[in-house]
Amino acid sequence: MFKRMDEIMIEIPDVEKPDPNAAAAVQELLGGKFGEMSTLNNYLYQSFNFRSKEKLKPFYDLVMSITAEELGHVELVSHAVNKCLRGSTKYKKPDSTPLASVKDARLSYPFLAGAQGAMPFDSMGNPWTGANVFNSGNLVEDLLHNFFLECGARTHKMKVYEMTDHPAAREVVGFLLVRGGVHVVAYAKALEIATGVDVTKLIPIPSLSNKSFNEAAKYEEKGVHTRLYTWSDNDFNAIEQIWKGTHPEDGLPLEVIQGVPEGVPIPEAPEVEEEFAPGISAEDFKQIAKRLKMSGNIRD
């Protein structure tokens, strides 16, 4: 089962800088082949189909805990897209073409079908597909795939970071570079325990430290790259048998934390009247409030 909170993992800057093309680039980190929907669903189905989970509990716990974090990453990237899109259009009467300002946007589908919100697509508007999911049932093969997937995801994050300087995009991408790096190291350590091969000698892939990116470096200075969460109040603590020792890049001690990281409130999404969203007028709101009071037997 999953437990959900009305929070996201980090605070995303709220700036008046609409940039639909930046949003399109960030979409790659959501619905691309190496995006967060791919990492989430790869690990999700591996966790559903895991063989001999009692005998191989530390590996099972690792996949389970990282799966839960990936749900938070899908959520976080979606809000980054939303922040990049915010303010792209302004309300006008329909005959004044209020959406004309985005007719030449590289990816127009969020305006036509999503009211300026994130969608499960890549940067070119291709829908995410379950064909991106790999689950062989073979422990070493799946771990090796996951290591490769996280390295590929890291490459894509670095490229998106270099493509846009939008503060919301860079804040989220910088954080995900650090957390994705945790998953790279975690799968490398798991492969070493499973096979005896020191895969950590291969990293970082690409061979550029996260410290080269300002928005990632600040999170590493806080030790975010050394922590692996169980994402459960009581379960999955056998990851301590894998996530131990020191970080292969800077030698800092690794730490398993039972539970979840402290989050921040999910940002408010304002009305987009020109997109008919949420489509509730002031009078409608009064009537809804009145009916809610009646159903709750609340008196003024």
From TrEMBL:
It comes from the Bacteria. Pfam families: Mn_catalase. Gene3D superfamilies: 1.20.1260.10. Belongs to the manganese catalase family. This is Manganese catalase family protein. It comes from Paenibacillus oenotherae. The lineage of its organism: Bacteria, Bacillati, Bacillota, Bacilli, Bacillales.
